Each structure stands twice: as structure tokens, then as C-alpha cells.
Amino acid sequence: MSNMERSENRHRETDDILARKPGTEAVTDLADRYRVVGAADRGTYANWLTPLEEHYVCHRNETLDPAAEDWTVELGGAVERDADLEMAAIREEYPTVAVAHTMECAGNGRGYFEPETGSVQWEYGAVSTAFWTGTPLRSILADHGAATDDDMWLTAVGGDRPEVDGENDRFARSIPMGKVLEDCILAYEVNGEPLPPEHGHPVRLLVPGWYGVNSVKWVTELRVTETMVHGEEWTDRDGEDYTQWQQSSYRIHPEGVDPESNATVSTFDTWDQLESAGIDHPYTFDQNVKSTIGAPEDGATVSSEDGPIAVVGVAWAGDDAVTSVEVSTDGGEDWAEAERFGPDYDCAWRLFRYDWEPAPGSYTLVSRATDERGRRQPVRIAGPTEDADDAYPWNEGGYAENACLPHAVAVTVE
Fold this sequence. Notes:
Strand order of the largest sheet: 4-3-12-7-8
Distance between the termini: 56 Å
Structural class: alpha+beta
CATH architecture of the largest domain: Alpha-Beta Complex
Strand content: 25-35%
Number of helices: 7
């Protein structure tokens, strides 16, 4: 298949997804070759639970839709008993849990970078919160005698493959064992429904609080290893490269840099990696603290005649808790504390509300969140060669953006 044919197939596939998801819209890369779907408007972020009709969708290859009864997950590596796990066994022979998770694409906010970076030009719409139901991986690993020391890793491989002739990469992500045992699941339902094909039917890895790239869809293999996917064992495994999406893509680095492959890293917190002198090009694991306003909509005209105007939105911080949300109505000059309310789950966003009593005029609304470690959203995105305080670093992939000003909302009050 050629790149042109792949692009045409992706457009047709996206059209089908949009028909099933009326609350989404298409988002593309700069060349309009690669299409995904994200929230159609900010109203999604005025509510805690994201309906599937509004949940963003992003993956690299064509969507799979296999029969669940024919699907197996190979378990191997540092385990006492290899296994081919059938879906019936995954669902019925182990405990079942439901996990609340705010899933965010690592490229969410890429469209705000200047100069522009490649790939999909996401603005705010690639983040959603849902309940995911499945089997705790710790139960499966314990049942098969897996080595689960903290320095071990679990690699998940997706069943999807590139469609273009000459491409040989497989979608694989390695997750540190401590995180796996803490809360990772093999998910087969979302919001009480079987996984739709575009969300990974019949089974996907779910890594709560981490960027969506880690939650591998259509899982066909789980392998317990001493390192991440790294080295010749993984770069040429039966003629296929399993390292691309761990070691090259989804890394935070300046333009023109080829990130060095690592066997392991000392911290999995993305912000900590950014601040670490020992990690040159961070991996996108745990989500950075972030927030977005859901109401009023950008460009809205609102009236204050009926009382205070509610500024409502969501804030999240990956594995960490959100401890403060502030709102500015003057473009970030002055800030006031917002109320956090609603459901409070680990690894899921919190709703916030600020009751605002403005005079008529034009305003720029901004939100910023702070996590439990005192880390607050930076103000803006830095330029490619700029090293600035309170600015998120520009990077070639446009990953892990969490500056507050790019997400501002312009409002007119009558």
C-alpha cells in the first residue's frame, strides 16, 4: 500500500468514526494525510464523564475489529508459565475492576506550538474521562509466576501493523512493573459497553494517569522483561522493529535530534524527566498537570443580568492529585481560586467552578492547575531555542504541552 492509499483509507475510517461519534470532529496533520477525531467543542469539558460519542480517538494504523472469541493474548518472557490467554479466560477467571481514567493524547495542545510541529494539530480536544472495566494485570502475572520486582518491565504489543510498503514497525510500549502492579488493567469495556473497534476491541492495555500512547490497543502480546523494548532483540524481531514507539517517537527533544535508546530510566514522571540532568530526551509516561475551561465557549457572548456567570472546566495531573485550580479573567494578570467539586478518583480529572460577576466588556479567561507536589502549569510555550522560566519547552513532536495561556477563552459580556 502507498502513502496515498493509506491516507485515503484513514479518511474513510475517520468518516465512519465521526458518524458514530456526533460529539467529535476531525483533526489532521499539516498535510491532511493523517486524521483523528477529538471533542467537537469545549462543552465536553463542562462535565465529568465523557460519553463515548465525545471521546477522542487516536491510533497509528488501521482499526482492527476481530471476533473476540478468536482473540488471544500471548504471555511470555520472565514468567514461570507461558500462556495464550483467551478472552473468555481474561474476563471470567480473574477479578474484574472498573477504573476511572482521564486519557490524554501526548500530542494534545500540539497545535499551539510556534513554529508548528509535525503530526496532528490537536488543540484542546484530545483528552477524555471514562470508566474502563477489565482484569488487573497483577492477577494475571501472579497466576503465571511472573518476575515482578520493581526494576522489571511489562511490554504490550498491539496487533495492528503499518499498511505502507517498506514500513516494519510494530506498536509496542513498555510499562515499569511498579505501575503495572499498582493499577494497570486489560480493559474490555468502556462506560459499561464492550470496547468499540476504534478504542481497541476486544482488549487493550489501560495505564491510568499516563498519556494515551501507553494504553496499547488490540493487545496481542504481553512480555515480562528486564528492560524497556531496547537493543537488537527488539529492533529486529522476526524482521520487525518493536522500539519505534517507545524509543524514537513520543520522546521530548529539540528539532533534528535522534533520541538515544535507553534500557531504563530513573523516573517515570514526565515533569521530573524534564527537570532531570540525567535524562536528555524524556519519555511521555505520566501526564503533566493541566486544565481547560469547558464553559463559557471560546468566542461566546454571555449576559450577567441573571447573576454570576459560572466558569466551569476540568483539571488533571496524571498519577498526582490536583490541589488547586485558579481562574483569571484578564488574560493571566490576576488570579482567583476556583472551587473543585464532583467525583474525586485517582488518575481522573476534577471539575472546577468559578462564579464570576463582571461588568460588560471583553475578557480573556484562563485556568491554571497545581498538583500535589506544588507544580503549577507554566504560562506559555517557549520558542525552539528559548530557555525561559515559567514556559513549557518547545519540542519537535509537540508532546506533553501544559501551558495555560494557549488554552485561553475569549468572552464578551453584555
